[in-house]
Specification:
Layout: H1 10-45, H2 52-68, H3 73-96, E1 102-108, H4 114-125, E2 129-135, H5 138-146, E3 152-159, E4 163-164, H6 166-174, E5 178-187, E6 190-193, E7 204-207, H7 209-214, H8 216-220, E8 226-229, H9 233-243, E9 248-252, H10 254-259, E10 263-266, E11 275-283, E12 295-303, H11 309-319, E13 324-331, E14 339-346, H12 352-364, E15 365-375, E16 384-385, E17 430-432, E18 435-437, E19 443-447, H13 454-466, E20 471-473, H14 490-504, E21 508-511, H15 515-524, E22 527-530, H16 538-545, E23 551-554, H17 561-573, E24 579-583, H18 600-608, E25 613-615, H19 617-621, H20 624-636, E26 641-645, H21 663-673
Parallel strand pairs: 1-2, 1-3, 7-8, 7-9, 16-18, 19-20, 19-26, 20-21, 21-22, 22-23, 23-24, 24-25
Antiparallel strand pairs: 3-4, 3-11, 5-11, 6-9, 6-10, 12-14, 12-15, 13-14, 17-18
Helix pairs in contact: 1-3, 2-3, 11-12, 13-14, 15-16, 16-17, 20-21
The structure holds phosphoenolpyruvate and manganese (II) ion (MN).
Manganese (II) ion (MN) is lined by residues 449, 619, 645, 655-656.
């Protein structure tokens, strides 16, 4: 077969690829050089190291550039978020560890266990080189540190699935050691065996109890399997490798599986998408931290035996504007049913307000010990107001001015108290994923009426995200007028929706129709929708009121605003305060539109309740051509967002095709929407 000389050979193409990869690494090195110069400039100007505004601007810029070059914007965001984090830790390192270049670190376990990999990440993140000493027990680690055989002990303190590691707290209470650093490490759990056996052939799984707990849902799905606890996951991997029995498997890091020549049967088997372990670095002496570095302080506190004692301690922190990132209670030794509290807050002990707050706390507390002050790495991801990302060629959107006087209604209904603005004058912000709905933000929910296939939802997610939508919608349990119409793909559809949302970097919202659906759907969806037909399904309202998931409560098609608020009250009364109301049109004598979109409800609600209000012009009008103008009108009258149905081929949609926009129509609307003012 003769080859076309104009097409490069595979070898040539691979060389080109290698060349590009090398260039990327060189560019990264160049970026880090600049970062080093910036750190110096900041050192001279006493500027804070982290600049969230600047970071947001960088991410928005690269996202836009990536989109314009046909590269996925979420991918660009992910890569650059990592890069920025790394750059920040390098800048912090220049202020924290400028006087040394290597450290010795003791950890519990063996090489290639999570503890060692995390210790390496911590040391590398500070631009240092390390000598790592793995020891069998926590006591040995602490003794090595106390007797000056190592510089640091690096210990796991908290896990996003399994919670706190109690023994570390006991060590911190009893010993005179200091927290000098923290880090969070992503735990990748995989299942590995000697051969590529089907899962039903497995009989026993080995691992550390914590690792087994973190993938309990996966293991529960294998009823024939028994578990055996091991001192660490690396031992478990070794035991499986040595036994050469294909019915045995171990849970641990992919690195450990590879080191023992095992085959990875399944990756990412953890109960949560992302399992993070928080680690602390302990040293014999405290290390002062430059005030420009954002810092956390940890302390132990025992309160007096007086009513409201803990509250008064927390008030002290609040008075000095110190925000709490963790509050944990542990039993006091030898004092049954008495507790001590472990507290982390954002602040540096070198700041005068922190020093004064600590003094004030000492007068309130029975016992107080500062455990350390260190650069913050593990802090909750800040939510962002859902302002429209300005499309490249359109003017930046401006939040609508408050179009209604936000004064409480004079006469509140007896059916709702918690939802009443008189009870809570400030607007409630509801967090969905990392987005905030409410206040001055304007959120756009978009997606098909129903999830029809994995491919269509993935493609739609990508498209609406590129146009600037924030949240992906898609029904999987569909409330259809007749029983012969398409009823939705059920939980299989939910998996498709969740995967599409994840790939596009968007939180997802989907409808629940019965109380039994609430828990399984809440496990995968970021927000639960109650449809118009179920607005007064009180069992369903009570059920969503019991889970910690935001709820999108659509207005019943024949419900008054009072009834709607009373329905929201059911959810709030169960303890779930995260309700967003959605006006989706009501039944009137008018038949030119599917429903009559009652935009006056928005202004009434903004006055009567503190809950956010959004508008669904798709169901509200039922006609594609009317959706965009009513979306603009919703923004103009003070709604906090819109929900819009979008379909790849509306004419072939399995539900609500007449009111669904094409990708192109949605993209066009999004450019305009940014320009509407209140
Ligand atoms: C929907 O959002 O897909 C839906 C069924 O809406 P509604 O409950 O408002 O009819
Ligand atoms: Mn629909």
């Amino acid at each position: 077969m003769s080859q076309d000389p104009s097409v490069p050979s595979l070898t040539e193409l691979r060389q080109q690829l290698d060349q590009t990869d090398d260039d990327i690494v060189r560019l990264l090195a160049r970026r880090l050089q600049t970062v080093g110069l910036i750190a110096k400039a900041k050192a001279e100007h006493a500027t804070a190291i982290r600049d969230p505004e600047r970071e947001r601007a960088v991410l928005a810029r690269v996202e836009n550039l990536a989109s314009s070059l046909g590269i996925s914007a979420p991918l660009a965001r992910k890569i650059f978020s990592e890069l920025i984090d790394y750059s920040v830790s390098r800048q912090v390192a220049t202020l924290v560890d400028s006087d040394r270049s290597n450290v010795s670190v003791a950890y519990q376990g063996q090489p290639l266990t999570y503890n060692q990999l995390a210790a390496e990440q911590y040391v590398a993140g500070r631009g240092l080189s390390g000598r790592f000493v793995g020891l069998a027990s926590l006591t040995q680690v602490i003794e090595q540190l106390a007797s000056s055989q190592v510089d640091l002990a690096f210990l796991p303190i908290e896990n996003t699935v399994a919670g706190s590691v109690n023994q570390i707290y006991d060590v911190l209470r009893e010993r005179d050691l200091h927290i000098v650093g923290e880090d969070s490490f992503k735990i990748e759990l995989c299942l590995a065996a000697v051969a590529d056996a089907p899962l039903p052939a497995l009989r026993r799984i080995y691992s550390h109890p914590l690792a087994l707990e973190q993938c309990s849902a996966f293991i529960d799905g294998l009823p024939q399997v028994q578990t055996t606890p091991f001192a660490d996951s690396r031992d478990a991997m070794r035991a499986v490798a040595e036994a050469k029995d294909p019915t045995l498997a171990a849970v641990g890091s992919p690195e450990a599986a590879r080191a023992h020549g095992l085959v990875i049967l399944r990756s990412d088997i953890g109960n949560q998408d992302e399992i993070l372990m928080r680690y602390v670095a302990l040293a014999r002496a405290p290390v002062p931290v430059d005030e420009r570095v954002s810092c956390k302080t940890s302390l132990i506190l025992s309160t007096r035996h007086e009513k409201g004692a803990l509250l008064r301690c927390l008030q002290v922190l609040a008075e000095y504007g110190l925000s709490l990132t963790k509050l944990e209670s542990r039993p006091r030794p030898n004092r049954p049913w008495e507790y001590m509290f472990f507290i982390d807050f954002e602040g540096n002990v070198a700041e005068p307000r922190v020093a004064t707050a600590l003094e004030a706390l000492r007068t309130e507390a029975l016992y107080l010990k500062v455990l350390g002050c260190y650069p913050a790495k593990a802090t909750p991801q800040a939510a962002q107001a859902s302002e429209l990302r300005p499309a490249a060629e359109s003017a930046a959107g401006e939040a609508p001015a408050a179009v209604v006087p936000l004064k409480p209604a004079a006469r509140a209904s007896k059916h709702y108290k918690l939802a009443d603005r008189a009870t809570r004058p400030a607007d409630t912000l509801v967090r969905v994923g990392d987005l905030l709905i409410g206040g001055d933000g304007f959120v756009v929910i978009a997606g098909p009426c129903s999830v029809e296939s994995a491919e269509m939802i993935e493609k739609t997610a990508r498209q609406v995200r590129e146009s600037g939508a924030h949240i992906l919608r898609g029904g999987v349990f569909k409330p259809r007028t007749g029983p012969y119409a398409f009823q939705g793909l059920g939980l299989a559809g939910l998996d498709m929706l969740a995967a599409a949302g994840k790939a596009a970097g968007m939180p997802i919202v989907t409808e629940v129709m019965s109380p039994e659906q609430v828990r399984p759907v809440a496990e995968k969806a970021d927000m639960l929708q109650i449809g118009a037909r179920n607005m007064q399904n009180f069992a369903l309202l009570n059920a969503v009121g019991k889970v910690d998931r935001p709820v999108l409560l659509k207005r019943g098609m024949s419900s008054t605003i009072e009834e709607w608020l009373a329905a929201a009250e059911y959810i709030l009364a169960q303890g779930n305060g995260q309700v967003v109301l959605c006006e989706r049109g009501i039944r009137t004598f008018e038949s030119a539109t599917r429903n009559t979109l009652d935009l006056s409800a928005v202004v009434v609600l903004r006055e009567r309740t503190h809950l956010p209000v959004i508008v669904d012009p798709s169901h509200g009008t039922g006609r594609r051509a009317y959706v965009a103008p009513m979306a603009w009108a919703a923004r103009a009258c003070g709604a906090h967002g819109v929900s819009i149905e979008v379909h790849p081929e509306p004419d072939k949609a399995l539900s609500d095709g007449d009111q669904s926009l094409t990708y192109g129509e949605f993209g066009k609307l999004m450019q305009g929407l940014g320009r509407v003012r209140g």
